[in-house]
Amino acid sequence: MKRKIAALCILICLLSGAAVWLNVEADIPVSYNAEDIFGQSEQAVFYIRILREDESLKATGTGVILSPEGLAATAYHVVKGAERIEGTLRDGRVVSPIEVLGYDEQTDAAILRLPAPESGKKAAYDYLPVRDTAVRYGEKVFAIGYPMANTPIITEGIVNSPNAEVNGRNRILTSAQIASGMSGGPVLDRLGRVAGVVSGSLRTMNNIHLVIGMDDVRALLAARAISLEAA
């Protein structure tokens, strides 16, 4: 009888341990690879065309949608002096005109507003969640952008520095490859959250690239009393 009781106690302990282990596993956030990240993000990243008054092409870049109503972010140097901004979504839809809501030339951050979706189309834009904590040294990140007209690419790297001063500006440094045309695109963490916006490359170091931190984007939103939740 005592042996049966002891065996039952051991079984209960094992089951309890398994339950605790399962709960711990359930609390661990999902981590995605590059294929997953691109698949869940591509519809919220768009190709930017800067047009002159005569409709000729002046510049190109990338933007990322941050709310279902069409609030978006990009790099200021992409839209600087733009007369008209046109965006092409991954599904081929062309959205125009895109409005610049605010920018900071010092940080290179800019916020945009896409036009409301047309009636009969999707009721809301696909968008990406914004990370609310700082990135860390060595953390894996992914960059998405349009270096080839209407053809997005994804690159993978790490955070080389979460907060480096470059020419008087605070920047995230990453080894995720950046090509011309990817400026303004998102840098995503392993959970698919926007951790920064592509700004450019660091000429003094090979394969180290510059990223605008999301605190700079939030500062622009706060200055205009814009909330992502109510955008």
TrEMBL record:
Gene3D superfamilies: Trypsin-like serine proteases (2.40.10.10). InterPro entries: Chloro_Bact_Ser_Proteases, Peptidase_S1_PA, Peptidase_S1_PA_chymotrypsin, Peptidase_S1C. The keyword Signal applies. The keyword Transmembrane helix does not apply. Residues 1-18 form the signal peptide. It comes from the Bacteria. One of its GO terms (biological process) is proteolysis. Pfam families: Trypsin_2. GO terms for molecular function: serine-type endopeptidase activity. Keywords: Hydrolase, Protease, Serine protease, Signal. Belongs to the peptidase S1C family. This is Trypsin-like peptidase domain-containing protein. It comes from Paenibacillus hemerocallicola.
